[in-house]
């Protein structure tokens, strides 16, 4: 029997297939999902605390469920976005087999709340104090500054980025990261989809950790301007995050010492009423001596 998917297959076990994202545009809970066995898993809506979300219910014959009540189809950004970068990778044949698609923009899986917050952050970025960071399926592809600083010469396509491993719009992580002009702070607007469920109706702690690690890691990358690795991550989970919730992970560099960058992160709801998690992390320059200095940056990225 053939494997449902194999390493290197960009579809992954529960994914809609190459280029599937953007083609179907059906949102998080309105599709019949393909599972490795070939069975289908229709999505039914389930009311959990504070959110309407989806639970997959296996049936022998999949049915198409009704659209997600919060999904929107007119989720079109009104403010100008950073244009998708031209593919300028070192090995175009290897890296450009899949056309680059910036995924840090609204799709039909984004809830109205997610779209609203995205627009708010775009408006805030209009004065240049923040910028939206494009995001792709493959973490380092098509992003010249990161390709150059992180890996130098790329000879083969990179693996898929964990956060972009689900093609179904709205089913996994939907997010856009904004980088402060100081280069010392990142904010990730994120909607946690039904595939990230842990306890019934709530996001898995590992999903929250992934969100935090990525927000912190992007901040560390921007600080280091070189390849960094997470060396330590300490998270306090303070309140469960409902599946489907829109949250903001806010990370900033606290200081750096030699090769170590010390960062903090807070995950809140968009109204800042609920603090879901707080974290501290240490990222390390992978090579060299770091910045060579000790620096503390408490103030210069405080806006917003
Ligand atoms: C412009 C921006 C665009 C952005 C565009 C975004 C693109 C999209 C990006 C998404 C962003 C995703 C971000 C994901 C980030 C991961 O998920 S990374 C994966 C998880 N992390 C890992 O796998 C790391 C595994 N660990 C390691 O590789 C190694 O242990 C490390 C951390 C590199 C350190 O190893 P090493 O360089 O050999 O260090 P070593 O010489 O042993 O020790 C040096 C010092 O560090 C200390 N140290 C070593 N390890 C540790 C530790 N774990 N904890 C604390 N201290 C330590 C030692 O005690 C020593 O201290 P001193 O004696 O000097 O005082």
From TrEMBL:
Gene Ontology molecular functions: hydrolase activity
Main location: membrane
A Pfam match: 4HBT
Taxonomic superkingdom: Eukaryota
Record keywords: Apoptosis, Cell membrane, Cell projection, Cytoplasm, Fatty acid metabolism, Hydrolase, Lipid metabolism, Membrane, Mitochondrion, Mitochondrion inner membrane, Transit peptide
EC number of the protein: 3.1.2.2
Record localization: Cell projection, Ruffle membrane; Cytoplasm; Mitochondrion inner membrane; Mitochondrion intermembrane space
GO cellular component: mitochondrial inner membrane; mitochondrial intermembrane space; ruffle membrane
Protein's name according to its UniProt entry: Acyl-coenzyme A thioesterase THEM4
Region: Disordered, residue numbers: 1-28
Lineage of the species this protein comes from: Eukaryota, Metazoa, Chordata, Craniata, Vertebrata
Organism, scientific name: Gallus gallus (Chicken)
Keyword Flavoprotein attributed: no
Residue span(s) of domain Thioesterase: 200-273
Top EC category: hydrolase
Reaction catalysis annotation: (9Z)-octadecenoyl-CoA + H2O = (9Z)-octadecenoate + CoA + H(+); dodecanoyl-CoA + H2O = dodecanoate + CoA + H(+); octanoyl-CoA + H2O = octanoate + CoA + H(+); tetradecanoyl-CoA + H2O = tetradecanoate + CoA + H(+)
UniProt-listed SUPFAM superfamilies: Thioesterase/thiol ester dehydrase-isomerase
